[in-house]
Amino acid sequence: MSDDENTHAGAVADWDAAAPTFDDEPDHGLRDPNVRLAWADRLRAWLPPRPGDVLDLGCGTGSLSLLAAEQGHRVTGVDLSPAMVALARAKLAGRDAVFLVGDAAAPPVGEDRFDSVLVRHVLWALPDPGRALRHWRELLRPGGRLVLVEGVWGTVSPAGISADRLTELLAPLAGQARVERLSDEPRLWGRAVEDDRYAVVVQL
Questions:
Q1: How far apart are CA 196 and CA 162, in angstroms?
Q2: Do the beta carbons of residue 76 and residue 69 sit within 8 Å?
Q3: What pLDDT score does 73 carry?
Q4: Most CB contacts within 10 A, which of 8, 16, 23, 118?
Q5: Under DSSP, is residue 31 helix (H, G, I), strand (E, B) or coil?
Q6: % of the chain surpassing 70 pLDDT
């Protein structure tokens, strides 16, 4: 097994192990009505007003997918972890939603194209974020939207991707990018946070 295959297998095992308790975090499970409403309001502003096809990459247990489906969108979710995907399928049973096991950087969606690509806390962990962004751009229909929720976490050994770096990577892809700061919105996270959290919405 190659180093890349070892890394991939380890990542799947880690996320599969995390799946049973993943929704315990307020911004993961959205079990608190106030947190859920805060994310629903944000999605309503970020996604197109008309129901469309949304690709939720790194969808986890499907909490954002569920909000998008409740707003009338048709959702395709992709996650590396089979355990996460199983939970997402159960969470959205009976909804207009499909969940696939696969790599967010190269989602297994064939020739399908989408009105929006939604990605939360995934890009920073990818080995080549610029390449992923270019690929996600190709998955959008003309006039589509790219919605990226990212941040920089921690102070001693910070992890993440800064808004400046992300907008720099997005510049060659055309479209208008809007940055929204989210750190001062405790309702989104279920608590006050000191990390740099933000969203970038690109209208193509």
A1: 8
A2: no
A3: 98
A4: 118
A5: coil
A6: 94
Helix axes 129-138, 163-170, angle to 10 degrees: 50
> pLDDT tens digits, residue range 128-171?
999 999 999 999 999 999 999 999 998 778 999 999 999 999 99
Burial class of 127 by CB neighbour count within 10 A (0 to 12, 13 to 18, 19+):
exposed
The C-alpha angle 194, 181, 73, rounded to 5 degrees, equals: 120
Structure tokens at 73: 């969108």
- Looking at residue 21, its pLDDT comes to 97
Q: What is the DSSP string of 46-82?
A: HS-SS--EEEEET-TTSHHHHHHHHTT-EEEEEES-H
Summarize the chain as % helix, strand, coil (round to 5).
40, 25, 35
Any idea what DSSP says for residue 126?
Answer: S
